[in-house]
Write a structure and sequence with these properties.
The complex is a heterodimer of chains A (751) and B (216). Chain A has 751 residues and is an all-alpha fold. Chain A has a domain of 347 residues: Na+/H+ antiporter like fold. Chain A has 28 helices and no strands. In chain A, 42% of the residues are buried. The chains are: A mainly alpha (751), B mainly alpha (216). The interface between A and B is large, with 70 and 71 residues.
Amino acid sequence: MAPIQRSSTLRLTGLLCLLFLVFFSHGFASHDAVSEKSSETIQEDSRSQANSTAHKKTFPVLSFNYEHVRTPFEISLWILLALFMKLGFHIIPTVSHIVPESCLLIFVGLLVGGIIKATGEQPPVLDSNLFFLYLLPPIILDAGYFLPMRPFTENIGTILMFAVMGTLWNVFFIGGMMYAVCQIDAAKLAHVDLLSCLLFGSIISAVDPVSVLAVFEEIHINELLHILVFGESLLNDAVTVVLYHLFKEFAHEQAITVTGAVLGVISFFVVSLGGVMVGVIYGIVGAFTSRFTSYSRVIEPLFVFLYSYMAYLSAEIFHLSGIMSLIACGVIMRPYVEANISHKSYTTVKYFLKMWSSVSDTLIFIFLGVSTVAGPHTWNWIFVIFTVIFCLVSRVLGVIGLTAFINKFRIVKLTKKDQFIIAYGGLRGAIAFSLGFLLNNNEIKNLFLTAIITVIFFTVFVQGMTIRPLVELLAVKKKKESKESINEEIHTQFLDHLLTGIEDICGHYGHHHWKDKLNRFNKTYVKRWLIAGERSTEPQLISFYNKMELKQAMMMVESGSAAKLPTIVSTVSIRNVQAKGSPKPSRAISKSREEEIRRVLRANLQNTRQRLRSYSRYELLNDALEDDISEARFRKQKEMERRMSHYLTVPANRQETPPVRKVFFQPEHKVYTYDDSESPRGRASPSCADDVSELKETPEKPDQSSTPRANRDAELKPKEQDDQGDQLKVSRCLSDPGPNPEDDEDSTFLP
Amino acid sequence: MGALQSSPGRPEYSDLAEKTGFSFEQIGVLHKRFKQLSHNEETLQRDNFNEIDDLAFNPIRAQIIEAFFDRRNFHQNGAGKVQEIGFEEFVVVMSHFRPPSADMTEEQRGKTRREKLRFLFNMHDTDNDGTITLEEYRHVVEELLSRSGTLEKETAKCIADAAMLEVASISVGHMEPDEFYEGITFEHFLKLLERFEIESRMTIRFLNMDTTTLCK
């Protein structure tokens, strides 16, 4: 009972807030509608009044001046509205399960627009400038920065095929067919000429990344399909930009010339490759800058954002593809920046991007709804209906045709189910609307806008709502819950090298060969320039391992108990795995010692780099564990600080040394101290990654030596120590201290 | 098991084609490469492989080369190593990397997966005792990291140990503190990499293929 009551009161509150906000904003809208006309005079008046009345009236304690803050105030109100809506939909779970969020948001926009219009005001329309310059970039950057590179590069051929060929096919098919439709007398559309139809086709054909993201994120479809549709929606921007400008020019001149067509083709390559190049340049500069940001950590995230945004704007200056530039910048920048920036900055970047893109996306859909109510519409049944039909038909035909061709070259073929989902996932969205809005004002524009809005509504509402049950019905593979496995990572790397080797033996340069070459180039030249310090030589397997260790350590913090290995519910511990003959320590360690050891472990492990693999906004919401862990970690760290009086707030790369006599931790601290100007980085297997290059290859003979470790004032460890240290390090690595052999109390700890 | 003549006609290929699933064109291409590698001799030795320049950068080069000379990979239930191989063995080893054809049944797919995983297993299990011990696994990880810096021996050990732990936990679940996990058996290995989709990942494109299907 109680929850239902609560939710209904929440709903009521939400609705009241909404109405309140709307009326508030409307009230001020009307206020300044009046004041707009006489704003100057009023201002003068008030000023003169103020001057003249200064002598007569008393000083006004409280005065009202809304003009002053009008624009930021209204913007804030809109954003607040968007946020309340988002909150509301998540509090009420039943609706959001059936209807995707984007639909609900458009609906809210319609409501708000309706309310504003009902009160006689002109609701604001989604200004194209606002959309392209402020609302779209955060979403694209978020998508590009967290783009999963492996599936993307593996399927790049398919994606490009769909993006370029698919969009071209759509444009010409729809444009041509609509022209044919316009010739029908009954439609009274004879004034729409071929070029305008082609222009219309170019606007309406492109799959929209915002809508695709919004819908696909919720259905958790398998990675391949997701990256195909999403990648297509990103890369078709170049085609759209070129065709749009091309046809606009032609429509202006009312003629198509051959040179024009040829120039169009050339322009396509310039636009796409130029955009990518701009992005790459900014990405490299950004990565290089991040190499030095250790001097001022607080501004690190800003560099990421600003460089990406500049890449976008710079591309837009030259009419290159801004979206591709942004994606390229994010993709290039990310591996190097992540290696350089601090953990906190990394978290900041991640959260800010998600936050901005979330707000943007909400605002876009709301504004779409509002603009629908606002805009002048020219409704022509035949035109609109046929547009919708041809959009669907051309998409299906295009996908089927292209897949038949692509499957010849793919190893993992695309099945009919896949094709259906790809075709069905071709959603249109706000980009189409904004492009349409940019058309020159004439009677055709309203016709087009109406049709565009109808198509958008159709795809988002109908396709968006039905895709989830269809996915269930067709039993399409969902995204698998990828539990991170060090074995899989090892084998991924192993396979990479193996396949490269086989390709070399076969004697032909396949795509593994080139990938390997690129990796080597990256490692030898690029990383050295763009990554600060020692991180530049850290191999991927180790980063992965560090990250896993961090996770385990954090989970141990959570569980708090000594012997439990958190990720695995089993009683298998390292002792079971170790070679039989190795010295099984028989002495149990005292509880307090264990506690201290664990705390030190945690402190050392927590400065590890974390590599993000998720790119879904929704996945982020489930990342609560990370926050709790960071919190718990931080609290415990503070506590330890207090107890041992060390300073740790500055990303500590040294001095995590507690004054405890544990000689075997010495190597960790050795490792920490030498890189004092770097960010705290994954030396999580610090115990393992000793700076012991001189260590000779020790035979794994279990050695019962009990030489005290006091000899270890140098980094080099004598041979017999290796096994004990080995076992100990192993257990340390697994955050399971385990019983320690030979506590040599007499050996002093040398900081 | 004789080595093929220097100018083989198609009928000799048909035998191989049936055995391995390659098409005639592909076998022809592979034969050309074989002759190139072996300097027109009948058999290949390890030195011939060492001459391939591109392989020099590969961290697991030794293991790849060994895999070619490993009798377990010849589909003849043999064991141990040979010193030289003929064209037939060459093609058989290569056939482990064929992509699965589109019209495979689930059972065939499972069979292919087992085959490929068996190949990988053999690569790791160097002493041919049927299990991948901790030592062998450590060696694998060390080799992987061998090209990437000088200080990774300890890390390699740790990583290998953690990996073994994971396998043990996945496969065995519960173990008493004094029990000992011998090593990864083939069954455990299968279970470990079950979600890995190895049949499509462990493939390379062979040239001159028919664009329709790879099997006849």
